[in-house]
Amino acid sequence: MSGLQEILVLVLIVIVLFFLPRMVSRPAQTPRPPVQIRQIPWKWRLALFVSVIWLVIAALWLQPWAGDLVTFASVGVLPVAAFWGAVWVLTGFKRRDG
After folding, report:
1. Nearest to residue 62, comparing CAs of 80, 75, 79, 51?
2. Is the pTM of this model over 0.70?
3. Fewest C-beta in 10 Å: which of 19, 23, 56, 71?
């Protein structure tokens, strides 16, 4: 009797795998157009590059891993964070006004 049950289970699996998705198919969806990522302007690229270089130079010069974390935060991270915060705020004002 177990052989018959195995065959019935296999038939049930085949029915579920092949016929059930066709019976419960979703309506055709229209494909979405690909998202266009605009090119980053050279000024933004330069600002990003200078920010990373500033952080690397400050880290190598101040060596925050040696215990001078407050100086590194105030000299290295704070100017970069203030700059990008100002850019963020100015961009928001510019988009709101225009």
Report:
1. 75
2. no
3. 23
Nearest-angstrom CA–CA distance, 33 and 16: 33
What is the rounded CA–CA span in Å between residue 39 and residue 52? 20
In contact, 38 and 60? CB cutoff 8 Å: no
Inter-residue contact 72 to 54 (CB < 8 Å): no
Question: Per-residue confidence of the chain (98 residues) as pLDDT tens digits?
Answer: 567 777 777 777 877 777 766 666 666 677 777 766 678 888 888 999 999 999 999 999 999 988 888 999 999 999 999 999 999 999 898 888 86
Parse the chain into domains and list their residue ranges: 42-98
| CA dist., res. 96 & res. 98, Å (int) | 6
State how far the Cα of 49 lies from the Cα of 55, in Å rounded to an integer.
Answer: 10
Residue 79 in tokens = 């100017």
